[in-house]
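On to our target:
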Amino acid sequence: MWHTMESRGVSAIIFDFDNTLVDTAGAGRIAIQKVCELLKSMHVQESHIKDICDHFLRKLLHESFDPSEGKTIDDVRIHHWHEALQETQGSDPDPALATSCYYTWKNTRLQVLTLSPEVRALLEELRKSYTLLLITNGDTQTQWEKIEAVRCKGLFSLVVVGGDHPEQKPARSIFTHCFESAGVRPQDCVMVGDSLSTDIQGGIDAGVRATVWINSDCKSLPQGSVTPDYTVPSVLNLNDVLLKLR
């Protein structure tokens, strides 16, 4: 029985998804570029185009989505584009344009998003020795669309999407759900993610064996931030950390 084992070894790895395993930020930049091209082709004033996209991105960043209100995430995000066009141009935009902007952005992002061959190979290798788990924040539809787009579900014993649960990372409840469903103890797990406030804080609060911060921009730790046990520039450096935890 697993719970009688007193070994200090790591048996499970919990991964974050966006900007840890896949370059969501990079895919987003390409998607915005495509919207800029669309707006140009629709003869939107060139000086407005960047502002429209910046307005959309600000709304996306501060988005609150409540599925119980009867709207889909698509409705909410089409409305972000509608408002961005309205605020920048000062007049009521063609509703069809907001819809075109949204689906250009969404579909481009999903097409570009990919699990690199190197990351896929790493996960294939790690699955031979560890239970692999995925916990991603975000609404149900958006996150499952991304997971399906990169075809990675089969690499994990369990995939947990924040929007399917009462609370998202860093809440302890979503980690507890993950531990219980996968039959692992917190101290058997390593948490790997790019967000100090959700992944690293969440892992520490949940009592995992170690936290690994993916710091691709080589940023310094912000003042007053939580401190990860390990910091690496890419998930591809994870093996170095796992060797130390043996």
In short: The CA atoms of residues 2 and 184 lie 8 Å apart. Residues 24-41 form the longest helix (18 residues). Confidence is low (pLDDT under 50) at residues 1-6. Strands lie at 12-15, 131-136, 158-161, 189-193, 210-214, 230-232.
